[in-house]
Amino acid sequence: MSRKIRVGLIYGGKSGEHDVSLQTALAVMKAVDFNKYEITPFYITKKGEWKSGAPLLSPAQSKEALTFGGDSALEPIASNALSPIFGSIQSKGEVTISSTVSSQAKASEPGLDVIFPLLHGTFGEDGTIQGMLEIANIPYVGAGVLASAVGMDKVMMKKVFAQEGLPQCVFRYFNRTEWEKNRAYHLMELETAIGYPCFVKPANLGSSVGISKARNQEELIAAVTFAFQYDRKVIIEENIDAREIEVAILGNDEPQASVAGEIVSSSEFYDYKAKYMDGKSAMVIPADIPAETAEHIRQLAIQAFQAVDGSGLSRVDFFLGKLDQKVYINEINTMPGFTPFSMYPLLWEESGKPYTELLDNLIQLAIERHEAKQAIQYTFDVE
Length: 383
Prior knowledge:
Blueprint: E1 5-12, H1 18-31, E2 37-44, E3 50-52, H2 59-65, E4 75-76, E5 94-98, E6 101-104, E7 114-118, H3 128-136, H4 145-152, H5 154-164, E8 171-175, H6 176-181, H7 183-193, E9 198-202, E10 212-214, H8 217-227, E11 233-238, E12 242-251, E13 256-264, H9 272-276, E14 282-284, H10 291-307, E15 312-321, E16 327-333, H11 343-350, H12 355-373
Parallel strand pairs: 1-2, 1-7
Antiparallel strand pairs: 2-3, 3-4, 5-6, 8-11, 9-10, 9-11, 12-13, 12-15, 13-14, 15-16
């Protein structure tokens, strides 16, 4: 018998991108088809406390559960109350998501059919919660443990991209201990290899949190100090006079790339305020670039997605040099935002895939990947 798909929506999180996650969750809940899905909210506070509530069956209920700063509709839960996640689906009885999406689950069985982890940054986009969901053996939307971890750590990501032969800007990195013990050496190395201006970033964070542009040594030292507030490792990148081009990826083993879009920032660079607060940054979709350049960027985006072993979705960001038209890959974001200002869903809308269909596809991809992994043999018996 067909029934609604039970989706666990996890949002918030102990991360510098907590508020971004709330915006993403709110946008998803406004668009979800409640005729297909039953949503159970799992809110994680900034302190890491989990809260949950009864399944949401209508947009009105979702609005109450996702009110900003307010989780009054949700109650604190102990770890053993996460049993809906740990012990969900075991096959029998068809569950229909759409005419082309199905999974096997028993209608009377408690639990969830799939998890949608709308978490950004630390403990949400870095492979940690993905590992928990792997242990729980439940389908979840988005990248797996490896791709999430690599995509989150900008240093490891750039090393993978370098191995893949993807073009990227000059960068250097170090951890807090290395900086404190050899500050003079690192300053000399940065000024020699990269020069000014340059960008300083926490290695493991997104949404432009903790990023600064340094124009001289004094600003560089201040920027490194600031970045260390958000991570134990920082990365410094050369400044490129470039346009910012982004491509959305959707799929598992056979990913598809959207049209390319361009970000025209309201600030000197695309910082947190420009992304989420002032609403003044412009998105040009599709980007006004030559067709062959756009296709080249789309192919590089697929290559980057496959290089980190991506699945589900990602947004791949590029720089396009204003003078030489050279393409540089900047980064891959394995859980891009779905806020009203977010590029990812807008790119797919321009590519002919509306928001509700996109959500259906993401859930379908999560279930397909999970079912494929069930065929893997994890034990070995010696005869």
